[in-house]
Amino acid sequence: MKTILAATVTALLLSGSIPAFAATNTYTDLDSGFTLKYQPSWMEIGSKNFYGLANKPDKKETSLNIICAFTAKEAEEETGRKFTTEEFLKKYKDLQVLERNELSPDKVDYIFFMPDPYEIKPGNRLSIAPKELLDNSSISISTSKKGKQPFVYLHIVENENKDELKKLRRAVDMQIAITSANNMLYTVVSTFPLPNLKAQKEKIKQATPFTEKKVRTELTDENKEKIKKYITSRQAFLKGLTFFAPIKDSTPYGFYDELLGGRVKLPDNWAYAQVNDDTLNEKMPLRITLGTPWSDISDFITFSEKEEDGNELHLDLDKEDISKLNYQKIKEAALFASSRTKEKNTFAELFNNPFLTNLIIDKFIKEGLNHPSVKEIVEFKEINTKSNFSNNYGTIQLDGTGSVKNDYVINLNAKAMFTPQNFGLAAYIAKDEKEMDTELKKMLEQIQLQKK
Of 7, 25, 73, 206, whose CB has the highest number of CB atoms within 10 Å? Predict the structure, then answer.
């Protein structure tokens, strides 16, 4: 695993908001030995050895909490140092003694309490934090327990070296909470954006002498409230974790989508991001899931080529940046979507007249794929469709080819599914030289939209 932070934060390209808190959910990773109890979030991200939640408490900026799990073998291979939970707990107690007596933590010579192993490097499975942030930030270390579970905290906040940190584009507060159980190494990464003080100073300058104090006070109060919410989310994530001895999971790896039949299987080396959003259309709340090989994600999101100084790390993108990303790094991806509309007969007309439905489908697809926002990224040159609507269940098979920014050809294979109230989509996109995996193709073909 390469860059947890960079990949996941930059993956938040869709706009949306966190839904209102509801009943607690539970995520269990048997192979990695942890369970997380959490409240519904705007986005879930996951792979075979990490799981995280992204939220937008102010409906604009994103905070991220994620747990990464590493075996003793992985920890040892990346550091050259033997790793056991017994040794971790011994060093933890030593660090506590130093902390109580306000002595230097350097006296505990333990690589897993240092930031170095977690620096983003090619091929480093422990990678979490970018080098620019680690080299130009204030890093503090502390200890505490959540219940009976001991944690060592690395708290990373940028300093004033703006020239070195300009690649990060936005100041962040990062915490890495490190713990161990059953000879597993766990890192719980939490990041959130710090207030944009430069923009706020401009607002204060624009205020009149009579309103300046009020504007300054409002911005300060807003900053405090935002950070309070971020920290509350960070603490809740840690509190929701419990650990147990890993056991082999007999359930195939994948994600959950009730309308697409429940568990949707993915290849073991893939990661996914799932957005739950009711803001795009109030009558049609969407669940959108994007899956792709983890190696493609880290290559695609972590670095973008820059002539002047090589690789530039992006932690925050706006919509104008999307067209500038290097899509050549993505070799294949699968997109899933589902929705149960608020009205029971939203799509009922599709089943009244099959001939008319075919015309509507053709028009809808052509208009959608020729929309300027789509053509900015990909331009489709050939699209074939086949529809079948009967007995209140309809499918649209779609395949075709297109080009991404005129750089290379892609192949598209998709299936859209309808009932009078529900909608589902399973799509596979690959570069022309990439052949579709047989098992993945079979899995996509088996996905059926639930009728109720």
Answer: 7
